[in-house]
Design brief:
alpha+beta; globular; 2 helices
């Protein structure tokens, strides 16, 4: 049996709701956060941007439409 490595053997995503996606992206980039896509994505509920934490797990920040 191989050893469990939390950062590499999990498949979960946290989504953080924000009021202003563009401002939060700028803030996080100032802290060297690297986003997966060059521009935010959108769906029927709002806009979002994905990034990886230091363990390689994907998380998203999400700005819902009003």
């Amino acid at each position: 049996m191989s050893q469990y490595e939390h950062g590499y053997n999990t498949s979960s995503t946290l989504v953080f709701s924000v009021k202003n996606l563009d401002e939060k992206i700028k803030e996080l980039k100032c802290h060297n956060v690297e986003f997966i896509h060059q521009t935010p994505n959108a769906n029927d509920w709002g806009r979002y941007a994905a990034f990886k934490d230091p363990s390689g797990i994907v998380h998203e920040i999400f700005e819902p439409y009003d």
